[in-house]
Amino acid sequence: MKTFKSYLDEEGPVGDGDCFSVAGRAMIDMTEAQEQYNMKLVHAFVYGQGPLKGRRFEHAWNEQGNTVIDNSNGQQTVMKKKQYYKLAGVEKKAGAYASYDKGKALGNMLRHHNWGPWDLSTMLGEKLPDDKRGIGKKKMRIGRKELQQINIASKL
Fold it and tell me: What is the mean pLDDT of residues 116-143?
């Protein structure tokens, strides 16, 4: 049985923290059923596990109703939203949490040319990790071909 450490330990197989790009791509590639049931992209501060225990950092995942889908770093985590939020210490407050439907997510990708985070505040006085290698790469640029895909998807 997996422990929660494996769910919120951004140290991926290669230590590259891909949460923003993985969650963003899920918005581009969503199925009709996911769109019908209003899949969301979430960016929020979470409390880390494992080597990042006690540290708070930006993280990204998707939600469908009351279910969290977190496929970052090769994981395939599906968990009840209430449980995920409690374990990760997610607080739904301005600057620490942002949720996007497909239109807003794709619009932000096109506007900023990166996977995010777009609306999280760095002024929260959080105790962020000293070693940035183990957390999700922020503001990672989106390639030209992917931007074209996003542009097409945003018009559907």
Answer: 66
Q: What is the dihedral of CA 111, 116, 122, 128, to 10 degrees?
A: -170
Evaluate whether residue 70 is within a structural domain.
yes
Q: Domain range spanning residue 68? A: 4-120+132-154
Domain for residue 8, yes or no? yes
User: Hey, what are 72's tokens?
Assistant: 């970052």
**Residue 58 burial (C-beta neighbours within 10 Å; 0-12, 13-18, 19+):** buried
The pTM for the full model equals 0.78
The answer, yes or no, to whether residue 133 has pLDDT greater than 50, is no
| Cα angle 121-84-109, degrees, rounded to a multiple of 5 | 45
Q: Examine residue 126 and state whether it is found in any structural domain, yes or no.
A: no
H helix intervals, 8-143 = 19-28, 32-36, 81-88, 102-112
